[in-house]
Amino acid sequence: MGCLERCQFGALSIPEDVCVVDSDRCIGCGNEHPIESLLYTCPQCGHVLLLIDRAFDDLKSIPGEMWHKIFDYRRMLNIPALKGIYRYHEFLGSVIPLDSIVYLGEGHTPLVEANSTLSQRVGIKFYYKNDGQNPSASFKDRGMASALSYIHFLIQQGLVSDVLAICASTGDTSAAAALYAAYLQPHIKSAVLLPHKKVTPQQLSQGCLSHLLTYRLLQQLLYCLWLTAR
Question: Looking at the predicted structure, is the pLDDT value of residue 159 above 80?
Answer without folding.
Answer: yes
